[in-house]
């Protein structure tokens, strides 16, 4: 089970995580990955100046722009392999 945590603190949210969250949900839906991913929001983690921040399986991705979030997920799921559960 992949774990994605999206910072929903006001800074990250306003700077892109509002859109990033929508794009992630869309991505998981389109690829049938919804049951394999535990996605949740987080409160501000004190790294606002590096935001928007997203954590995927313990790896912190900073400055995640909506234009790059799909590539980030592609990269993660490609390296995780199709059968990972
Ligand atoms: S709002 Fe995301 S780290 Fe502060």
Short key terms for the protein model shown above:
alpha+beta; 4 strands; 21% strand; single chain; 2 helices; 85 residues; 39% helix; binds FE2/S2 (inorganic) cluster
Structural class: alpha+beta
Give the bound compounds. FE2/S2 (inorganic) cluster
User: Going across the major beta sheet, what is the strand order?
Assistant: 2-1-3-4
User: Any idea what the shape is?
Assistant: globular
Reported for the largest beta sheet, the result is: 4 strands, mixed
Distance between the termini: 5 Å
Radius of gyration (Å): 12 Å
Kindly state the mean pLDDT as a whole number?
92
Portion of residues within helices: 25-40%
Structural notes for this entry:
This protein has 85 residues and is an alpha+beta fold. It has helices at residues 10-30, 69-80, and strands at 2-7, 37-42, 54-56, 59-61. It has a 4-stranded mixed β-sheet with strand order 2-1-3-4, covered by helices on one side. A hairpin with a 2-residue loop joins strand 3 and strand 4 (59-61). The model has no long low-confidence stretch (mean pLDDT 92). The chain binds FE2/S2 (inorganic) cluster (FES). Residues 7, 9-12, 44-48, 51, 53 line the site of FE2/S2 (inorganic) cluster.
């Amino acid at each position: 089970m992949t774990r994605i945590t999206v910072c929903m603190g006001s800074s990250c949210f306003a700077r892109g995580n509002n859109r990033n969250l929508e794009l992630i949900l869309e991505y998981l839906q389109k690829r049938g990955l919804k049951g394999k991913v535990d996605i949740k929001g987080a409160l501000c983690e004190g790294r606002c100046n590096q935001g928007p921040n997203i954590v995927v399986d313990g790896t912190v991705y900073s400055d995640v722009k909506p234009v790059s979030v799909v590539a980030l997920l592609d990269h993660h799921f490609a390296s995780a392999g199709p059968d990972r559960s």
